[in-house]
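S1.2 Input.
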Amino acid sequence: MPTTATRAWARPVVAVLGLIYLVLGGAGFFVPQTAYSAGHDTSRAVWLFSSSTVLKIVHLALGLLGLLAALIVALAGSRAEPAG
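S1.3 Output.
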């Protein structure tokens, strides 16, 4: 089982990935409107990939779960460390 020292890199990585998913999920709700006003095909909002409302919600949920997981691990780690 990995020790706390070997897992120290995981919390910031999960937090950054969670933030990326959260930003992508939130931005996905605005891309089709701006792309439509510019005359682009909104069925392919992000390059070659299609974008649906369900996918945007999944990105938001994964982002929130990632940030929540990083926060819970940080809080649990701060309580487990001795004060003196």
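S1.4 Remarks. The mean pLDDT is 74.
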